[in-house]
Amino acid sequence: RLADDHANAEHLAMGLSEVPGIRIERDRVDTNMVYFDLEHGSATPVVEHLREAGVLVLQTGEQTIRAVTSLAVEADGMTKAIEAVREVMAAPRQ
Fold this sequence. Notes:
Elements: H1 2-17, E1 22-23, E2 33-38, H2 44-52, E3 58-59, E4 64-68, H3 75-90
Helix pairs in contact: 1-3
C-alpha cells in the first residue's frame, strides 16, 4: 500500500506543479506528503475553499500547504484535489 501512497503523492505533486500560482519543490515530496507554496497571498482562504470542496489539507506556513495521501483516497481523488486547487487559484482572492 505504501507504493500506492507514493504514486499518489507523485501524481498530486506533478498536477499541482502545473497550476499557475503554485510553487512545488520536488525534494519536498515525501512518501505520502506533498508540500506546496502559494506564490502570492495567504494559504488560509485556499485551505478553507479546499475543505469546502472536500479536500482536506493543512496550512503549515503563511503560504505553505501540506497534503497527505492515504489508503482512503484513490488516484481519482488526487485528480479531484488538483482540480479543486486549480479552481481556487483561478478565483479572485483577498
